[in-house]
Structures are given as C-alpha cells and as structure tokens.
Amino acid sequence: MILTEEDISTFVNTLKELSLYDFTEYSYKSLTRRISKVLVDHNLKLQALLDLMKRDPEFRESIVYEITVNTTELFRDPAVWQTLRYSILPKFRNSTRLRIWHAGCSTGQEVYSMMILLNELGLFEKAEIVGTDINSKALEIAKRGVYNYRFNLNYLDNFDKVIKEIPGSKQLKEVPYSNYFSIDKIRDTITMKEILLKKPLFLWHNLVSPEDPPIGNFDLILCRNVIIYFNFSLQNKLFKYFLNCLFDKGILVLGAHESMIGPYSDHFEKIDQISIKK
C-alpha cells in the first residue's frame, strides 16, 4: 500500500489526539515504512486502522509497539562495551556516585548488560540506573527481565567478548552466565537474577517531550539506535536536552550508525561513538 504524506499526517494527528504519543517529528521515511507494514500485517486500510485505534485502547497500544523500534540485545556492539569497560567506566572508581540513563531502553537488555559490566568492575553498588522508553509494553518486558533464549543465543558470544575476554591473552576469564541469569532451554527463556531486577528504575518517558517527567542529571547517557528515526530538528532538540542533563565531563553514547551534527556538536568531544561534554 502506498501512503501519502497526508496519510502519515492523519495517522500521527489521530494518535496524538487519542494518547500521549507524538510522532510529529519522527522520520517520514521510517514512519511510512512501519505504518505500511502494520497495514499489511493486519490486512487493514488506513481508515479501518484508525477506527480500531479509536475504539480499542489496547489495540492502539499494540500498534504503537509495532511502529516503534524495539530491537536490542545483550552487549550489542561489543566494541562499544569494551570502550566503556576499559576507557570510560574505570574513571568512576573514586566517585561517590554514578548515575546512568538508558534513554529509549526498549525491552531492557542494554540495561542488564550495563549492570553486569558494572558488577564486574566493582561499580554496581554506587550506580543509580534509570531506563526509559515511550513503549509501555516494552517497559513491562524490561521489568520482568525474561527473554527468549534462542533469540538471544548468539548474543551470549557478546557476553564472552565483553566480560570474559582478557586483553592480550587467549585465555578467557571464568565468569559463569549463572552469576547473572538463568537459562532454561526447555522453556526457551533467559531470566535475569534478582540482584539485577531490583536495581534499575524503569519509567515511561517521551523523548519528544522530555520535560515530563523530569529525569535529572547523569554521568552517562546511552541513547543508541533511537535518534536515527528522528528528523534533524528533533535530533538537535534532543542533543540540547542531553547536554543539559549531563554533569560536567558527562558522557553520551549513540548508536553505531548515528552521529551528532548541528549546533550542539561543538559542546562535545567525540571519540568513536562516545561523546564527552566539554
């Protein structure tokens, strides 16, 4: 189905009228692709989809879940985690606190990856961790900390690269998976341990209207593979917000295919995917 700009505007405006969701400044191409897929998957035309969204709040939430990006992994992009492990996080060993915000945390695997790494570095107890997302369904999954085993199986290799590998050595550090999660192959689940489940604060938060609720200031903000779906104007609004939310010398981590361009880039020192507030 070919959607026009008017169709996309109708969808966005209808959703905005019915809920707190505002996709006004999302990438037009991304929205077109995702809404088209929703229509095909549900075998609906646009007006029928909108009518169902008006009548059924649960259906409306499920559509939001489908059109937002909820792809995340344990230790996604191991090179970034290795940079955090060896170059960034050790600087906080003598700090009294370490505040971390995972913005757009989706179903939470990144949050649990961070806690595992913090524990290995002896920083777990001093850390305060907040994970936020616009998608309520994704946040409920994050809070439960139960994931599909077979889907995540390949990502256990990422765990090994970040947690077990010793630089300059062919030997691996002995860190059992059972320290942090239990694997049930019969039920096809990976379940995070209670020590990890108790730690983070997961909150609903809309990056498009970031002032509500207030989030506070942080030493480290991770917003990976999120801004790629925003237009240039919204990206820069978000960079300004992140700048104001970071303590001096605070760190912002973006996704592998994302970069900071525009007026706020001058306020950061860039090292690969790591941006340090000047």
Structure characteristics:
single chain; 278 residues; alpha/beta; Rossmann fold; 7-stranded mixed β-sheet; 11 helices; 10 strands; 18% strand
Describe the 3D structure.
This protein is an alpha/beta fold and 278 residues long. It folds into two domains: 5-67, no CATH class; 78-147 and 192-277, Rossmann fold. Helices cover 41% and strands 18% of the residues. The protein contains eleven helices and ten strands. Strand 9 and strand 10 (274-277) form a beta hairpin. The longest helix is centred in the N-terminal third of the chain and has 15 residues, at 28-42. The chain starts with a helix and ends with a strand. The mean pLDDT is 90.
Short account of what is shown:
With 278 residues, the protein is an alpha/beta fold. 41% of the residues lie in helices and 18% in strands.
